[in-house]
Amino acid sequence: MHFAYPPRKSSNPAPFRPRSSKLPSVRRSRIRAVAIVALVVMSTLWIITKLFGSRSTVAWEPSGSPPVVLVTVLDGPKYGKAYVQSIRENRERYAAFHGYETLIANVGDYPLDEDSPSSWSKILAVRHAMTKFPECRYVWYLEQDGYIMDPSKTLEERIMNGATLDAVMIKNEPVVPPDSIIKT
């Protein structure tokens, strides 16, 4: 026979004794007290080290040796050997003339995922240059399609001079046309 309601709970007590209600609250309050004490101790130590610490807050500035590292990633199979060799010599001559260093890498030099485009090796090459020459002032990435036509001028004269940079810099143009709130 079916009943419309489930049967009532048994009136017999459970075979085990239920936990007292005070124990979890004591644990919670004890954990909370330990956490507050630890926070106060760590805050006090942090304040003491900031007030009486001997560390200077001067920002680290690279020595500038070499002043510039010229980075280029070459795609040998896509272009001919003569073209790649011409680009390599152009970069090395310019760097040697001005006391710069070069880091010329191939697209396959850096491990990439199968889904990643080969152009991501440029980022890894710049990172490699920054690791290899941590004291350099500038890292200049130049595409393999670019050719240095006037090697007599340094990078500082040509681009990094304040007046020259102001003249060629695009200002107040929307990044995402036509009416972007983010402007250059």
Automatic annotation (TrEMBL):
Residues 1-22 are annotated as: Disordered. One of its GO terms (cellular component) is mannan polymerase complex. Keywords: Glycosyltransferase, Membrane, Transferase, Transmembrane, Transmembrane helix. Signal peptide: none annotated. The chain crosses the membrane at residues 31-48. One of its GO terms (biological process) is protein N-linked glycosylation. This is Uncharacterized protein.
